[in-house]
Structure formats: structure tokens, C-alpha cells
Specification:
Elements (H helix, E strand, L loop, with lengths): L1 E8 L9 E8 L4 E6 L5 H8 L7 E6 L2 E2 L5 H9 L1 E5 L10 H6 L8 H6 L4 H13 L15 H14 L4 E5 L7 H18 L2 E5 L3 H7 L2 E6 L2 E6 L6 H8 L3 H8 L3
Parallel strand pairs: 3-8, 3-9, 6-7, 7-8
Antiparallel strand pairs: 1-2, 1-4, 4-5, 9-10
Helix pairs in contact: 5-6, 6-7, 9-10
The structure holds adenosine-5'-triphosphate and magnesium ion.
The site of magnesium ion (MG) has 3 residues, from α1.
Length: 257
């Protein structure tokens, strides 16, 4: 489904590569969790897959199509098939819940429709259906700014689902939430992706979460993949390799949560 070959990215003015010669194949329907200390390259990897940044070198294939060296039309199409979920939700706070979810349908609008912001009845029906899927059917007219963090992240999930995505990339989707909501949101996200056969790539800090929600885990350290395996294969030594004996090891690895 996704094949990454020799992916390297160095930010301008930086000495070290943020991701360094990453090779990775991700199967359809997999729930891949990326773990690693702050600065290890998790977000950079996800952003390269979504083309939010252009890597310095390497190739990324999605369903056998190279995504980095393609024309703008194809690039737009690929980006449209990838749903993104961010730690800080990235919603339009002053707009209604429904309007935000409809933004996931933008790629399906014609140019004329885009100019006038006109969504079809079908788009609206899809958005409403996805709001029901995330349990917010009653909230469609509510302003996003009036919602709790957990509700906001559910709106972001509904928006991503409305793109009818093949892949969802979730960069620390629960890091702004309290532990109970973290679990609720991750349960929802992984269950929906499993049901719909959506490939899910999530970066997470807490190891217990990674093991619980990943069908596969990769551990990153200083831009490299230092672990790639099943959750049950992750040993105490791997955890030390990934985090080093830093405060993050104590916080996320050793004590779990
Ligand atoms: N816009 C940027 N400009 C320059 N350097 C950057 C930029 N974004 C990230 N970096 C650097 O690239 C490296 C990898 O950062 P990245 O954000 O991918 O890490 P991360 O694993 O997502 O960390 P965190 O857990 O804190 O989100 C770090 O050394 C970071 O300082
Ligand atoms: Mg990050």
C-alpha cells in the first residue's frame, strides 16, 4: 500500500538529517504506530508521506504510484486520499461542526462549486453520516470553539473520514487530551479504520498505547528506524534503544501508563 525507499530529509540550516534513509513498507489496513523521543523524526516522516514537506531525497509510493515526482493534478489527488489528524485539531474554531466536516469533501467539488462554497446534498449527507459515526450527530450546528478537546478531535476524525481516505495519518492525535479521552479517541479511530480497511499511521508517546493500538510498531531514534516489529516483540532493551535512558524513557517507556 505504501512503500518508502531511502527517504531522507534535512531541514535547511540543520546539521543532522531529521529522517535518514528510511525504508518501510506498510500494508493495507495496517495500524502502524510510530514511537520515539521528541525530535526523533516522527512528524517529519508523516509530513513527507502527506507531502506537507518535500524530502531531500528518496521515493514514496502509494498504491504503486510515486508521489514525489508527479504532476500537480496527481499530487492533489493523492493528498486528497490521505486524511490528516493533528494534535491541535486544526479546525476552524469559529465555524460550525458540520462546516468543518464538509471541508473533508472539498476535493470532490468542481471548480465552480469551490468558488461558491456549494456542497452537494450528497456531500452534506456524507458529512452528517460521519458525524454520527463519531458520536456527534447532535452537534452539527454547534460552533467548534464551544466543544471539548475530545469532541474537537472527533470532529477532526469525521472530517478525515469524509475525504473517503485510503490512509489516515495521525500525528500525536491524543497528546492534548486527558487519559480517559485519549483512550476514547484512540478506540474510536482504530475501530473505524479497522472496519473501513483504512491504513492508519499514528505517532504516539505512551508505549502502552502504542502496544494496545498498533498492529505493528516502529521505533525511531535520531531519524533512523531502530525497531520494527509486532507490539509483543518489543523488549525492554528495544525500549531503551529507542528512548535512551532519558526522562522520556521513564515517562513513556518504563512506567507506561
Ligand atoms: N521546521 C523545522 N525546521 C528546522 N528543523 C526542524 C523543523 N521541524 C523539525 N525540525 C528538526 O527535525 C528533527 C525531527 O523533528 P520532528 O518534528 O520530526 O520530531 P518528532 O519526533 O515529531 O518530535 P516530537 O515528539 O517533539 O513531536 C528535530 O531535530 C527537529 O528539531
Ligand atoms: Mg512531532
Amino acid at each position: 500500500m505504501i512503500r518508502i525507499e531511502g527517504l531522507t530529509h534535512k531541514y535547511e540550516g540543520r546539521e543532522e538529517e531529521a529522517v535518514n534513509n528510511i525504508n518501510l513498507q506498510i500494508k493495507k489496513g495496517e495500524s502502524l504506530v510510530v514511537i520515539g523521543s521528541s525530535g526523533s523524526g516522527k512528524s517529519t516522516l508523516l509530513k513527507c508521506i502527506n507531502r506537507l514537506i518535500d524530502p531531500t531525497s528518496g521515493k514514496i509510493y502509494i498504491e504503486e504510484k510515486e508521489i514525489l515526482n508527479c504532476d500537480i493534478h496527481h499530487a492533489t489527488k493523492i493528498r486528497g486520499s490521505i486524511g490528516m489528524i493533528f494534535q491541535e485539531y486544526n479546525l476552524v474554531e469559529s465555524e460550525s461542526v458540520l462546516k468543518n466536516v464538509l471541508n473533508g469533501r472539498l476535493k470532490y467539488l468542481s471548480t465552480v462549486q469551490t468558488l461558491f462554497g456549494k456542497f452537494s446534498k450528497e456531500d452534506i449527507a456524507i458529512a452528517k453520516e460521519n458525524l454520527k459515526v463519531v458520536g456527534l450527530g447532535e452537534y452539527e450546528n454547534e460552533r467548534v470553539s464551544n466543544l471539548s478537546g475530545g469532541q474537537k478531535q472527533r470532529v477532526a476524525i469525521a472530517r478525515a473520514l469524509s475525504q473517503n481516505p485510503a490512509v489516515i495519518l495521525a500525528d500525536e492525535p491524543v497528546s492534548s487530551l486527558d487519559p480517559k479521552l485519549m483512550k476514547e479517541v484512540m478506540d474510536l479511530l482504530t475501530t473505524i479504520c479497522k472496519e473501513k480497511g483504512i491504513t492508519l499511521i499514528t505517532s504516539l508517546h505512551f508505549l502502552e498505547f502504542a502496544k494496545r493500538y498498533g498492529t505493528r510498531i516502529i521505533g525511531m531514534k535520531e531519524g533512523n528506524i531502530v525497531f520494527d516489529g509486532l507490539p509483543e516483540e518489543l523488549t525492554e532493551k528495544d525500549i531503551v534503544d529507542i528512548y535512551g535512558k532519558t526522562k522520556e524513557w521513564f515517562l513513556y517507556g518504563k512506567t507506561g501508563f
